[in-house]
């Protein structure tokens, strides 16, 4: 997650058996990305039990030179998995495959899914309605079943995975994995401002505002963070052009005046209702595992009725 996931969050996830991810743009320079991957590998090597792979996330619509340099670093580190988002990964698929990398692409529509499959990716992340960050619009259940009609490879559901029960539901629907963001912002290892973590605890689904007025693309933001910046959520949710939204809200500090998206205006998904405390990644993963097991037991009881 942009400005949230760094070495600590990704490494803690992998060490606790959960694929850890971070956008490569969170590392300002390719040298920093190189250092992060080395650090994550070293922490995993010191772990006392088997670890999950790290899955760096490449944002296809970023500075092309930085993107090329980042992909070079990923290939050099022979990362096992990459998640490509916001745009087609076509340009890099062959190169990553040659390095033995498993390539996932996130998609928000059937057309995106078909195009991503044509580009040769190994699996799809289905970005569904209510996801944190730049969200999809399709209902998660329908989207999984629609894609399953055209594709029998690996699928990951993103959006709506509030807890272990929802994770099992995603698997029952036909996904191999679930992708969770918001729940992991409220961990000690996340780079988020402590006030952001507190706001997640205090917020519910009703506090999530879907708007393209902030980032120029449909994204879910926390209403209280919009109000805290002195803005009116009703005004912010009015449709504006990409150019206008860029003018109003910049992504990086110091670039423009006014509140900055992702920095002052905070994002979360519908899963925010499941955030009850700030804890370590290890505690969160334990909780998810307990819930997943409880959901399985409930499922068995249901089937036996
Ligand atoms: C603050 C924030 C930043 C995000 N940044 C990224 C990103 O940089 N790249 C990406 O592919 N997805 C990003 N996402 C989306 C997540 O990968 C994931 O799809 C989403 O969080 C799933 O929904 P959930 O938050 O309800 O679990 C972000 C989400 C949030 C909340």
Question: N- to C-terminal separation?
Answer: 42 Å
- CATH topology term of the largest domain: TIM Barrel
Strand order of the largest sheet: 1-2-3-4-6-7
Mean pLDDT: 93
Q: Based on the structure given, which CATH architecture of the largest domain is correct?
A: Alpha-Beta Barrel
- Count the domains: 2
What structural class do the secondary elements suggest? alpha/beta
CATH superfamily of the largest domain: Aldolase class I
Largest sheet: 6 strands, parallel
Low-confidence stretches: 252-256
Model description:
There is one protein chain. The protein is an alpha/beta fold and 305 residues long. The chain folds into 2 domains: 7-189, Aldolase class I (TIM Barrel), CATH 3.20.20.70; 204-267, no CATH class. Helix content is 42%, strand content 12%. It has 13 helices and 9 strands. A 6-stranded parallel beta sheet has the order 1-2-3-4-6-7. A 3-stranded antiparallel beta sheet has the order 5-9-8. Helix 2 (30-45) runs parallel beside helix 3 (64-76). The model is unreliable at 252-256 (pLDDT under 50). It binds flavin mononucleotide. Flavin mononucleotide is lined by residues 1-2, 4, 23, 57, 59, 85, 106, 127, 131-133, 158-159, 161, 179-182, 267-271.
